[in-house]
Design a protein that fits this description.
Chain B: Keywords: Membrane, Transmembrane, Transmembrane helix. Chain B: It comes from Actinocorallia libanotica. Chain B: This is ABC-2 type transport system permease protein. The complex is a heterotrimer. Chain A is of the alpha+beta class. Chain A contains 4 helices and 3 strands; from the N terminus they run H-E-H-H-E-E-H. The radius of gyration of chain A is 17 Å and the shape is globular. Chain B has one domain. Chain B has 8 helices and no strands. In chain B, helix 5 runs antiparallel to helix 7 and helix 7 runs antiparallel to helix 8. Chain B is elongated and about 80 Å long. Chain C is an alpha/beta fold. Helix content of chain C is 43%, strand content 20%. In chain C, the strands form 2 sheets. Chain C has a 5-stranded parallel β-sheet with strand order 5-6-7-3-8, sandwiched between helices. A 3-stranded antiparallel β-sheet of chain C has the order 2-1-4, covered by helices on one side. Classes of the chains: A alpha+beta, B mainly alpha, C alpha/beta. At the B-C interface, helix 1 and helix 3 of B face strand 1, strand 4, strand 5 and helix 6 of C.
């Protein structure tokens, strides 16, 4: 279930990761794994990046790598930076609302169980 | 609009392979059934062509009804839809008539007035197209409508042409004209042509009126403009 | 051709089938293959089957394009007004007291169980049936997509475009161009030589939907035209409905699926009427 939740927020996550630093596809996946999520399959990741690119929030660049073919690097555009700020705000609001609803039942369950 | 409807209907007809095959071959069967008796052969051929074209017209109008309904709901003229389709059907009819005229002209040399054969085939197909449309409006189903047309044609063949009831049948003029084609000193054409003109006008007018009434959308007025915004 | 290249070729084929330009399709496929090669994984393991990946990618491209430039919402004049509309067939009351006021730039959904009279109400709005009571006022320029028999089985999509375009005097080239453009928004590239009865059910319905907008009507009436759509096409269909709304048309959709109703302006619920 958690991985499904991530896919709903995937665009937001990718924008925020790219706000930190530019990266290529696999790199973003590895950073998400490092943050505690399961590996996002290529069939979900690349269309999401494509959508961001078509919306003008992200631009791409080919960079020759040391070994193998050139990789496609993703970077935020100006519009992308604005979008990140908007989404961070939206996420804060969403998170407080979610906390308000989710926290109480868990607390009472713990009390009842202990 | 009308030329587009006509050319579209023609394309549609050309894709109904089985129906077209019937239209082309059935009159041949009728003709061959009476091949040895000249006047009967011509008459049967003409009635056969008439039945085939009328049935094609019936099928075409029945199967087009739902799309015609949709088109007239968005503003197409029912008149253009009707006459466009009739034009396409008349075209097919004329081609079939021409083909059979060629057959008759090439295979028979015993006919005193060959041009009358052309005339009689032409008048037959020109009546058959609106006749099929008229039957499709009275009986909007392909099988039952085709049976009705078959009954009309059977009556046409069986009824004594000199009897008073015969003139009520749509293809009476065909009989008259075939007599003209076959007799060396025939009666004048006027009776036959008059009946043809009357029948054609009546069938077309009835079919057009009934078709238009059936297709015309419910008249609706636009809402009166208001200045209030919710 | 290696199996990776085969995967790439399948991807290109499917992308063009669903309406992506050949050039862009090749580029997308090339990018995908390069990434897979750089990661040292076979594309099929990385992205899944080519056909499924193509559908997802195409949908992402279309959604982005549609949402990239949303037009400001402007509500225009009332284009459909129903007041106390009722419909009775002999002894059966199908509709009773239906009220609706729809403005240009709004979307209304008619929902209800089967037998609640949804299609009848739409037919009344389209002018195919007369209401037995109440008033119906409606703008003249409408588009209409019935649930069944909306297309001619023996005609090709282009012939449909030409015929429908001719209703308002559009010439053939323009009608075909507009129709093809509308089709691509639903992920469909019409082929010139296929008659409607040989199209899949979902594709026939896409043709049905395209024909309802071909003449740029002010009011578009749709009767559950998404039968046979896969998930991506269903989403595209609703994207298209909201795109029409943003373009200034009013849209009335009969639906029994309650999925996307939070984005809709009016929801009219019909209940099955009792036998009298």
């Amino acid at each position: 279930m958690r991985q499904q939740w991530l896919h709903g927020f995937l665009d937001v996550c990718l924008l925020c990761l790219l706000a930190e630093r530019r990266d290529y596809g696999r790199g973003l996946v590895e950073r998400l794994v490092g943050a505690g999520f399961d590996e996002v399959p290529g069939g979900t990741l690349y269309p999401a990046l494509l959508r961001l690119e078509k919306q003008g929030l992200v631009r791409t660049e080919r960079e020759a790598s040391v070994s193998g073919p050139p990789r496609k690097y993703y970077e935020l555009t100006e519009d992308g930076r604005t979008a990140v700020l908007e989404r961070q705000q939206a996420w804060q609001q969403f998170r407080s609302a979610m906390d308000g609803v989710v926290s109480s039942p868990v607390a009472s369950v713990e009390e009842a169980g202990s | 609009m009308l030329p587009t409807v006509a050319s579209t209907a023609l394309r549609e007809l050309s894709r109904r392979r089985v129906a077209l095959l019937f239209v082309l071959l059935l009159p041949c069967v009728f003709y061959l059934a009476r091949i040895d008796v000249s006047y009967q052969a011509i008459r049967f051929l003409a009635i056969g062509v008439g039945w085939a074209v009328a049935t094609l017209s019936l099928f075409s109008h029945v199967s087009a009804h739902r799309l015609d309904q949709r088109l007239s709901a968005i503003g197409a003229s029912p008149t253009a839809l009707f006459f466009g389709r009739q034009l396409a059907l008349a075209t097919v009819g004329v081609l079939v008539a021409a083909a059979y005229f060629t057959l008759v002209a090439a295979t028979r040399d015993d006919l005193p007035h060959l041009s009358s054969v052309a005339l009689l085939l032409l008048t037959t197909v020109l009546i058959s197209a609106p006749l099929g449309a008229l039957v499709s409006l009275a009986i909007p189903r392909e099988l039952e409508g085709a049976l009705a047309l078959l009954s009309i044609m059977a009556l046409q063949l069986l009824v004594d042409p000199d009897g008073s009831a015969a003139k009520l049948l749509p293809l009476w003029s065909t009989r008259e004209l075939s007599a003209h084609a076959l007799q060396t000193t025939p009666a004048p054409l006027t009776d036959g042509l008059l009946h043809f003109t009357l029948t054609l006008t009546l069938c077309t007018a009835l079919a057009w009126t009934a078709g238009t009434l059936r297709l015309r959308p419910v008249p609706l007025n636009p809402p009166p403009p208001t200045n209030a915004h919710h | 051709m290696t199996s990776a290249q085969e995967w790439g070729a399948q991807l290109v084929a499917r992308l063009t089938r669903v309406g992506i330009e050949m050039g862009e399709a090749r580029e997308l496929a090339g990018d995908a293959l390069v990434e897979a090669e750089a990661a040292g994984i076979h594309p099929r393991a990385m992205y899944g089957p080519a056909v499924a990946y193509a559908d997802t990618v195409a949908q992402a491209v279309r959604t982005a394009v549609v949402n990239a430039a949303p037009l400001p919402r402007v509500r225009g004049p009332v284009i459909l007004r129903l007041r106390g509309v009722s419909k009775r067939y002999r002894r059966r009351q199908v509709l009773q007291g239906v009220d609706l006021s729809l403005r240009a730039g709004e979307v209304a959904a008619i929902v209800g169980a089967n037998g609640s009279g949804k299609s009848t109400l739409l037919n009344i709005c389209a002018g195919l049936t007369r209401a037995t009571g109440g008033t119906v006022e409606r703008t003249a320029r409408i588009g209409y997509a019935p649930q069944q028999h909306g297309v001619a089985p023996l005609l090709t999509p282009e012939e449909h475009f030409r015929l429908f375009g001719a209703v308002h005097g559009m010439n053939r080239k323009k009608a075909v161009a507009i129709g093809t453009g509308l089709a691509s928004r639903l992920g469909w590239r019409p082929r010139a030589d296929v008659i409607a009865s040989h199209l899949s059910g979902g594709t026939q319905q896409k043709l049905n939907v395209v024909l309802s907008e071909l003449n740029r009507p002010e009011l578009i009436l749709l009767d559950e035209p998404y039968q046979g759509f896969d998930q991506a096409s269903y989403l595209d269909f609703w994207d298209q409905v909201f795109h029409w709304r943003d373009g200034g048309a009013g849209v009335l959709v009969v639906t029994h699926l309650l999925h996307d109703l939070d984005r809709v302006d009016h929801v009219l619920e019909l209940r099955p009427a009792e036998e009298s």
